[in-house]
Amino acid sequence: MGATVMDDGRAGTLLGHPKGLFILFFAEMWERFSYYGMRALLVLYLTKHFLMSDQESGFIYGAYTSLVYITPVIGGYLADHYLGQRKAVLFGGIMIAIGHLLLGIEGGGGQDAFALNAFWTALAFIIVGTGFLKANISAIVGQLYPRNDVRRDPAYTIFYMGINLGGMLGPIACGILGETVGWSYGFGAAAVGMLLGIVVFVIGKPLLLGRGESAHPEKLTAKVAGPVSVEWLIYGGSVLSVLVVAWLVGNHDAVGVLLLVCGGVATAYLLWEAFGRMEKIDRDRMLAALFLLALNPVFWGLFEQAGSSINLFTDRHVDRHIFGWEVPASVFQSVNSMFIILFAPMFAALWVWLGKRGSEPSTPAKFGLALVQVGLGFLALVWGAQWAGLENATPVFFIFLIYALHTTGELCLSPVGLSAMSKLALPRMISIMMGVWFLATAAGDFIAGLIAANIGAKSASSADPVLATLDVYSSVGWFGIGVGAIVLIVSPVVKRLMHLDKLSD
User: Fold this and answer.
1) Which of 57, 67, 203, 435 lies in the 20 to 30 Å Cα band around 383?
2) pTM of the predicted model, to two decimals?
3) Is residue 3 part of a domain?
4) Residue 297's domain is classified under what CATH number?
């Protein structure tokens, strides 16, 4: 058993946290640089380079982003039972880098068969790689701290700042290169970012203090086919799975079925664990976790319009001139992350300050506040467009406003949710719970794709595409506010199920 953070003097601390946290910070920063840089270009690339409709692009965007969050369930399981989180993260990073390099194959534009096949394959490499990396790097953060350590929530907020530093820089660098120089240059920059993340993670291994290593190393070396070990079987099988995933990206309905099956299996498994293997307190915590998990898709289904329909709205219907420069639409994908970097320290300090006074909102209450704010963001954009007049370009201020409200909502949900999963889960189930958290996010991304496709279809058939888009934004805005209000009402009950006063290391 590894030494605790408290008694290990080999690495020491930085800003009151183990130095390993900052290795994970920078590794995840560069991975998010690559992901968000590519994501900022994705819908624009589909509509402008491959000449796909908004509806088709919405479906592909939803399929891709949901698959990115489905695969961490499998990656979490393989890490828990075989690889360990560290090896899973390293392998995932290599797969992601390969995917971004393949995206650089543009072809001649339009429905170029070779370029399209390369595109599907590239997305599949990124999806499989993210499955190994995403849940597991978050799990290592939790492993650096005892379960009842008051630094856990601030640590995840710091980690989340790393995510968003990458999320800010990626769309700026990749977006400008992709839209002004060439698509392959934007995607190439994303590949470089991921490679830098791999380098940081490898060099910083000693500062992780043995966290994230396989709990069963003997399983990895066991031979299954001649000289082929279990470890290399996992790696080889994962590479072959790219073919299946590439097919899924282009088959939206199949992804929907997969989500239903995976969601049903995950829910059944957690309920079986709760009622079949857990004592009352742990069972209550699992039920509280399931409640939070159910809210996750609602939030992300609304929030993830940023990379799809809001990205296209910004490109076509917003006055993007700032100080005389018409800013590429993809660059605005960095605004959310800019606000995260600005607001995250404030929120971290606010939770601590309120906590010392016994006034900090509970985790479920924070989720309710998140949903209210994401709904208000859509209503703010609707009001801004109507104020300017539907025949005129919407002032860019309202794009900043919707992202500001969505950001404050995100800070009430995403880092708080990650921390809650690691806190409520039994130690043997941490990676699985992180994986299920991202599976719920996948459901939200799929819903986001459905909403974006619906907007695309309505806009294409409407005499006034702007009005058609705003009608949908108004509906989802009020929906978010309504669900958030209900969550706030029931939050005291859910808080009691968490039994926070009885947590132990």
Assistant:
1) 57
2) 0.85
3) no
4) 1.20.1250.20
